[in-house]
Amino acid sequence: MMSSPATTWSRAFWGALIARGVTDVFVSPGSRSQALALSALEWEHTGHLRVHVVIDEASAAFRALGIGLESAIPAVCIATSGSAPAHFMPAVMEAHHAGVPLVVVSADRPPEGLGVGANQTTAQSGLFGFASPTFDAVAEDEGAEKSALDVAAAAWNQAIVGAPAHVNVAFREPLSSSEAGDLRLRAVGEEPEKPYRGETLSLVAEPGTLVIAGHQAGDRAEKLAYELGAPLIAEVTSGARFGPHLLVAYREVLAAKELPGPLSRIITVGRPTLSREVWGVVSDDSLSHIVLRGPEREPANPTHKAHLVDAIEVSQPATQQQRSEWVKPWVMASRQHHESALFAALPTPPDTGMGEADDPATRSAFAQQEMLVLRRTVTRAELALSLWEASWPHDRLVLGASRMIREMDKIVGPKNIPVFANRGLSGIDGTIATARGIALSVGGSGASGVTRVLLGDLAFLHDVGSLMSEPGTEDTSSVHLFIANDGGGTIFDGLEVSHSAAPESRDRVLYTPQNVDIEALAGAYGWDYRAVTTMGELADALVTRDLKVIVDIALER
Q1: Helix, strand, or coil (residue 247)
Q2: Which of the ends of the chain has fewer CB neighbours closer than 10 A, N or C?
Q3: Which residues constitute the domain of residue 391?
Q4: Does residue 233 belong to any structural domain of this protein?
Q5: Are residues 334 and 303 in the same domain?
Q6: How is 382-435 classified by DSSP, letter by letter?
Q7: Going edge to edge, which strands form the sheet with 24-27?
Q8: Tens digit of each residue's pLDDT, the chain (557 residues)
Q9: Are 166 and 17 within one domain?
Q10: CA–CA separation, 154 and 74 (whole Å)
Q11: Is residue 180 in some structural domain?
């Protein structure tokens, strides 16, 4: 039986990555990459690797991105030669900007097949440009194993610190072999150093400090705000939206004619992306700016004057009296705005005492009021509040880009729950795939809970192919998609274009109206479907035990 360097290389490649911690690989079909796919199945049979077959490389890469977001361990995607690996680009760019571990592998023609007009061949080395380096290899008869081990180590070292890595490996025919081979976990060398090993800044508490927690800031931002006696602005995907210093209605507080207190020092953790008010503050070069760096590739430094640090120690924390004096005015101002927003968004609840009255007419009136509450149409604010209230630390909440993530950021209160979004580039692409990757990682770790996804109808349609499941395989992860369906991209109704373009022009090229039958799509892909128009129907949908469900929520434009 003829041996194949492609198979020898691939077996060793997986053995080296599995030994370092890789558990999941996403395979998209192709001939040139067959050795990578078949050897991954061999490793799956040993119990060391999970193989997921996804037709579309873009969907596969965003699912892998979701695993990286949840676990901080890179998942791997493989593609054949030609245009196939180019579909990895959106997820690779998101991983680059957000600092998420990811490995993508492209099979390539051998060197003698390049530049001669060979079919399904292009320049794949360096395909992802600034977003990822390429680690090139050629699977030769001699040295195939060493080549695989070297490339696997280089790709892992690039990805594990929070970055995408591209492996481009050239295979000659025969492209695979069924000849028995060696499946061994390969020894691991030294762990790579984190990319930033820089300054630790020592600070003392002082009035006029504001902590801003952007995307992926984490709970360190809340701790820092408390120690410094500073008000805290925490975006909904920051991981810091809790604690006594939190300003929920920060937009209104910052937009007021007068601030609740002095402002002189801004400490930014994570990259803020959700409001112009916050970006205006971090762009104010009259203030002192400190940025505590995280996984993001480009820290928030629009003034080009911020002091970038990798750790902050508070050598002199604020006293309780100082916290009260410095923070209380900010929190009270935020609370007033937030209470007004809740009052405007929520109906007046029925008087529960009426339901216990002796008078049948009074009890009947109470029942009618209850029914009216349940039958009222769903609004964006109540949709955001309902999903927030239904989610707990064992759940995952994934937010699509565009309007609804901002609606949620404006209205929901403090709660320490896992919230995810692709805010590296804030694109609507890959939302469903990312959520499915997160849910897959949660299930693989043995944790329970529901992954709820709140996204717009255009984000849903953009990634509808990610609804597909691999036949014959078991996927017990629980993913519930809540589609804010207002017939198009209504976020543009509130942007400058609503004043600069004629309504029919804006609607044609920006609002992009759609009338897709989402129920038919759900049936085609084997998902359960629920149509929601009232708050009572939404409440029922939030407690469904279906594993894969699409909740189609009709909203007014």
Answers
A1: coil
A2: N
A3: 376-554
A4: yes
A5: yes
A6: HHHHHHHHH--TTSEEEE-SSHHHHHHHHH-------EE---SS--STTHHHHH
A7: 50-53, 24-27, 76-79, 102-108, 164-170, 134-138
A8: 568 999 999 999 999 999 999 999 999 999 999 999 999 999 999 999 999 999 999 999 999 999 999 999 999 999 999 999 999 999 999 999 999 999 999 999 988 877 888 878 788 999 999 999 999 999 988 889 999 999 999 999 999 999 999 999 999 999 888 888 778 888 776 666 655 557 899 999 999 999 999 999 999 999 999 999 999 999 999 999 999 999 999 999 999 999 999 999 999 999 999 999 999 999 999 999 999 999 999 999 999 999 999 999 999 999 999 999 999 999 999 999 999 999 998 887 666 666 666 777 666 656 666 666 668 899 999 999 999 999 999 999 999 998 999 999 999 999 999 999 999 999 999 999 999 999 999 987 777 899 999 999 999 999 999 999 998 888 889 999 999 999 887 777 777 777 788 888 777 777 788 899 999 999 999 999 999 999 999 999 999 999 999 999 999 88
A9: yes
A10: 13
A11: no
Same domain, 381 and 517: yes
Q: Is residue 188 part of a domain?
A: no
Contact 105, 128 (CB under 8 A): no
Q: Both 138 and 266 in a single domain?
A: no
Give the tokens for residue 179.
């000849």
Structure tokens at 273: 């992306």
Q: Residue 84: what residue type?
A: A
Confidence (pTM): 0.93
Which residue's entry shows tokens 């929901």? 412
Residue 179 lies in a domain: no
- In a shared domain, residues 443 and 533: yes
Instruction: Tell me, yes or no, whether 402 and 531 share the same domain.
Output: yes
Q: Which residue's entry shows tokens 């810091």?
A: 240
Whether residue 165 is found in the same domain as residue 278: no
